[in-house]
Design goal:
Chain A is of the alpha/beta class and about 280 residues long. Helix content of chain A is about 35%, strand content about 15%.
Amino acid sequence: MTEGYSELANETIKAANGIDYAYRDTGGGHEGVLPLVLLQHFRGNLDNWDPALIDGLAATRRVITFDNAGVGGSAGTTPDTIEQMARDAIAFVAAMDFGQVDLLGFSIGSFVAQQIALTRPAIVRKLVLASSAPQGAAGMHGWAPEVIGAVGTPHTSPEAYLDVFFARSAVSRQAGAEALRRLYTRTEDRDTATTWATREAQYDAVCTWGIPDHALLQRLSCLQMPVFVANGDSDPMILPHYSYLLAGLIPQARVKIYPDSAHGFLFQHHAEFAADVEAFLADGG
Amino acid sequence: MTEGYSELANETIKAANGIDYAYRDTGGGHEGVLPLVLLQHFRGNLDNWDPALIDGLAATRRVITFDNAGVGGSAGTTPDTIEQMARDAIAFVAAMDFGQVDLLGFSIGSFVAQQIALTRPAIVRKLVLASSAPQGAAGMHGWAPEVIGAVGTPHTSPEAYLDVFFARSAVSRQAGAEALRRLYTRTEDRDTATTWATREAQYDAVCTWGIPDHALLQRLSCLQMPVFVANGDSDPMILPHYSYLLAGLIPQARVKIYPDSAHGFLFQHHAEFAADVEAFLADGG
């Protein structure tokens, strides 16, 4: 690896759907290892991935971050359904000429990752679901008032971000402050900020995903690929309860709940999580 | 505690259903603490509880083991449904004049415990489900061939017991040998052996519980009491996968998977499990 995530160029690729997608590519020429494609959280763009996490993952494999259609530096309109977000992500993967990838979805990105695995299973070798929940689970219809009140406002603050992404303990808050510093290490060529239209469409998609429908839980029983489910033990946005549900619904799943952490557990525990993801992706080839 | 489980008298009580139930009672006068009633595994009787586990649990609370209707030293006929086993167990609890109890169900006993919590929630303060699975879960229709081939035969062997209740490692096998020694410490007044009729009826109930029906998974969403779900990481009889499913379906559940252990994880890790159960039952009153 010649440079860290904070120094990577913003790149653009036009897909068959006509949309120009913004992305970053750690490269690195890891022969025989599939690229790992990341799907971002609610309102996040390329700059909302913790560079420490990406650098950790990129030590052993090529990592691709991208803005889905309508998000950040990508063209197009943010759709209001997870199904369309999955189509848009599949179009990006096809444009990159990746036959098969490993997928890591975070929060709303994990919903999109599930949908991709259901719609186009052939392109997903292994799946990592971070801070995730299955479609239709009871109690998932929109974030809790204090959560959407913190991260759903027109202008969000670092304090509001910390309240959702990090736990209450001094250790977690300190980790949050350090993660925030890393997120702002890059000062040049930052990605385009996400818009209010993106926020509205994404939250519609989140609420639609959360309409309770027990029958929909059965969808995941058809997944054949190995899945790693992970969450923070104190996530107020998507409770770890739903990680157990995912692990119980998906035939080949392993699950890990990280201590004293919240929605952003993967930034707080970036070294441990990167090592766990590496172990999962490397296991059995 | 004046005596260990291996020395406890076999007692009998007649319930309103006319059945004389065999039981053992650790007593101990723990004021203000509800009795903990245990529900036994497939083909098990009073002597199939590891005395080390019962003594651990009895350090802080009164523990009751009993044979359900038709099993071991109890009169009556073993029913072939979990629903009837739950009615029979509720009749025993009523005969003991317990208004409310904590319940710990192990294997088929955990199915009965779930059914009691669904049918008569008022008598269950807290619920412990060991080596358990929800009714209707896919892949639970009868034990795997090597499992029923080991513990489902007319005459079972210690080796077959070890194969299902303990893992493959030398450490787990050694723990199994020690548990078996403890199970046979008692030489006088052992309980009546369970019959082939009990085996047949219980396995019919197990298979019926395992008929796949996704809709039935939703039953557990109504449970209001706290639940502790536990399993061994290498249980071949009821995979830990189902413990995650339970923890995802039950609103207030915690889950723990014990390392290098199988169906009998609670005997292998008796001190740790007893401490975990105590912490769960003592938490918040």
